[in-house]
Each structure stands twice: as structure tokens, then as C-alpha cells.
Design goal:
Helix content: 25-40%
Order of helices and strands: HHHEHEEEH
Radius of gyration: 18 Å
Structural class: alpha+beta
Shape: flat
Mean pLDDT: 88
Low-confidence stretches: none
Length: about 120
Amino acid sequence: MAAQPDLDAEKIVKARTMNEFNQAYAVKVFGYESAEQLNISGSSVHYLKDIKVPTLFINALNDPICDKSTIPYEEIANNPYLLLACTKYGGHLAYFEGLGLKPWLPKQLAQFAQAMIEW
């Protein structure tokens, strides 16, 4: 941290979300103005308008990596080939159902693929 005097070690350690971590660390190290600017620069949002095949996006609203504030709701809504499914829980790639930790995501993807075949 001595090489980066503008870094606040306490803020970095206390970060509880990716946005908080990015604001405390990555923004300063990589020269971005904000965590939002960092998120946009690495986002696929710029390509959504060009997608011409049915595409399903699934995002958990409690995802600690892909925060709900980064979901491109408007861009997805403006493309008829895109479908967004948001779940309240799921974290980051951890979709399970029931107490037996049965994977939830493969069933959803199979249903979407089947619907596209029948469409």
C-alpha cells in the first residue's frame, strides 16, 4: 500500500460488496473515476443491441459480484431477442433448490432451450 498512498486500507478491508471494493481499490489503482465507470468499461452492455438470437440472462438480485445496480434493464428491454430473469436469491452462480442442494439452473436453461426449439 506504500506505493499507492491514496488507498485506504480500512475501506478496502471493510468492503462488503464488489462495488464497495472497486470504489476503495480498483478505481484508484486502475485510474477510473468511479466504480460505475469501471463496471461499464468491462461490461458487455455495448453489444446487447447487436444480439439477434434469443438469449436468456439470469441474475440473482443478491449477487455479490454482479450487483443489481449493474443489470442493464433498459438495454435488455429494448431488444426483442433478450429475456432477463431476476431471482431474489442465488448469489453468484449458486442456484440451488430445496434443502438437498439440487441444482436449479440446468432445468431453467433446458426449458429455455426447448422453448426456443419449439418457437
